[in-house]
């Protein structure tokens, strides 16, 4: 800041010195006429010279051709433009110097702020820091958390955020080991079934349900392609019928037809721009659905199909009633927010097409990515 003050003071002093020198400089005498008077004009009382001589212009010739370079049209155009004149008077010059000094001060303070608060190289923030969480889907068998996310979720995230601090393994004073309470066991009903060597039978999906689901997906695809191309590109291709049959066998219960029809069109999404339901539930594929089942089952038994990595929440559908609701460790699944998966799909398509809310959030697009606010 001291350097900035010195620079501003020096610039102001320089402006004042230059203004004083200009004010004290003598004014030059007006230049003489650029046209020499022809011989004999000075002694002509009538203002007219003698008869024109070869090589010497008369007064009428000088008046006729005495015009600015470029011709009269350009001269008239320049005369019509406003002229920038120097500020007259001591007060005007002081105001001009003060404004110049203020501009230099603002510029210097901005440069100083950029130099001091510039982010360090190699650090990530915002979307860039979150992008790694969705690089590739991952299964628990490979040592990855549920739903293919690198962020702690579910019971682990809830325990670390809300539970009481863990008891120390040894007394800090005596060093005697302290017995730890046993962790609660998982519900056996939420364990994944073994499919065996036989291929499960494929259940057909109703044509009426398939047509209705595909109609809503086409509406959303057209909107995403026109307004959020990065999210449109994140949609995966269709899942296979056999894959869905194996998923039902692992869960030990049926997946509602509207959710199966949706997976047969888009088997989830990928990347940081992945398609999400309101407000931040990223849709999952069939494999992520199976890997997330044990955790989501303990929240009420719903089949998960979308996951919020920020809070460890799930969107689940009831395999008996077909209703859809949210579930997390703080507020387990209790009631349906939508009557079916198809109802959620249609309300999302309506919100994209009309800009209205769904689930209390409205769609917005940032850098080609669909978000919900």
N-to-C span: 41 Å
| Major sheet attributes | 5 strands, antiparallel
Q: How do the strands of the widest beta sheet line up side by side?
A: 1-2-3-4-5
- What is the radius of gyration computed over CA atoms, rounded to a whole number of angstroms? 41 Å
Mean pLDDT, nearest integer? Answer: 74
- Backbone structural class: alpha+beta
Strand content: 5-15%
List SSEs in N-to-C order.
HHHHHHHHHHEEHEEEHEE
The dominant shape is elongated
Give the uncertain stretches in residue-range form.
40-45, 121-168, 171-175, 180-185
What attributes characterize this protein structure?
two-stranded antiparallel ribbon; 373 residues; 12 helices; alpha+beta; elongated; five-stranded antiparallel sheet
Brief digest:
The chain is an alpha+beta fold and 373 residues long. Helices cover 40% and strands 8% of the residues.
List the helices and strands and how they pair.
Layout lengths: L1 H23 L34 H7 L6 H9 L9 H27 L9 H5 L23 H9 L44 H21 L1 H6 L6 H11 L5 H7 L12 E2 L3 E3 L2 H12 L5 E6 L4 E5 L6 E4 L13 H14 L8 E4 L2 E4 L1
Helix pairs in contact: 1-4, 7-10, 7-12, 9-11
């Amino acid at each position: 800041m001291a350097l900035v003050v010195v620079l501003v003071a020096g610039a102001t002093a320089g402006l004042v010195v230059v203004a004083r020198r200009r004010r004290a400089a003598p004014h030059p005498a007006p230049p003489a006429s650029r046209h020499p008077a022809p011989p004999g004009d000075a002694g002509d009382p009538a203002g007219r010279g003698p008869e024109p001589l070869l090589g010497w212009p008369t007064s009428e010739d000088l008046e006729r051709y005495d015009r600015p370079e470029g011709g009269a049209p350009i001269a008239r155009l320049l005369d019509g433009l406003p002229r920038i004149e120097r500020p007259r008077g001591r007060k005007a010059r002081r105001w001009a110097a003060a404004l110049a000094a203020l501009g230099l001060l603002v510029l210097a303070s901005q440069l100083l702020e950029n130099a001091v608060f510039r982010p360090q190289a190699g650090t990530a923030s915002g979307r860039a820091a979150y992008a790694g969480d969705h690089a590739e889907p991952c299964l628990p068998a490979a040592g990855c958390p549920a739903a293919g996310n690198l962020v702690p979720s579910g019971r682990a995230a809830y325990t670390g955020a809300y539970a009481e601090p863990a008891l120390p393994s040894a007394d800090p004073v005596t060093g005697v080991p302290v017995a730890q309470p046993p962790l609660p066991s998982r519900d056996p009903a939420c364990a994944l079934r073994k499919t065996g060597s036989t291929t499960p039978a494929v259940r057909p999906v109703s044509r009426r349900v398939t047509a209705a689901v595909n109609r809503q997906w086409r509406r959303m695809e057209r909107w995403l392609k026109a307004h959020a191309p990065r999210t449109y590109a994140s949609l995966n291709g269709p899942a296979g019928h056999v894959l869905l049959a194996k998923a039902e066998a692992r869960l030990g219960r049926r997946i509602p037809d509207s959710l199966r029809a949706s997976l047969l069109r888009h088997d989830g999404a990928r990347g940081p721009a992945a398609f999400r339901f309101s407000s931040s539930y990223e849709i999952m594929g069939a494999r992520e659905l199976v890997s997330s089942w044990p955790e989501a089952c303990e929240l009420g038994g719903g089949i998960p199909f979308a996951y919020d990595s920020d809070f460890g929440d799930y969107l689940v559908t009831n395999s008996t009633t077909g209703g859809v609701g949210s579930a997390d460790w703080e507020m387990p699944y209790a009631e349906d927010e939508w009557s079916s998966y198809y109802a959620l799909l249609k309300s999302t398509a309506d919100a994209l097409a009309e800009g209205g809310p769904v689930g209390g959030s409205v769609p917005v697009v940032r850098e080609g990515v669909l978000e919900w606010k």
